[in-house]
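cron nightly-structures :: item 1 of 1
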Amino acid sequence: MLALAVKFQDDHKAHRDRLIKVIRTLGATPVQEKSLSEYAKDLEVDKLKSQTDVLNFATGLEDEAVNAYLGIIPAFHDRQLAHLAGQLAADETEHFTLLSNALGRPLPAPFSFGV
């Protein structure tokens, strides 16, 4: 599980870097990154007591990310931005599916996301 978590962390850093690049290309300024302690406090990670708690928490975050990326696609008039959101949604779907599998849950049903 640790190797999988590190891989997902690397994926999320790549997502962050790509989004920052796109935001700057559009002439905007990305939000300031929070410290790890700020994220931990905001997400209440101190309540996570077991590996199952962590997996359930992470699975929920991945599900929210998939749906956020899919939900924004129709708003983009720029095809490249829509494409990027689709790529990010695909990565997050992979994360969700692998985490769900680690929890012994079935694979997502067709059309599970973006509703």
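cron nightly-structures :: done
The longest helix spans residues 2-25.
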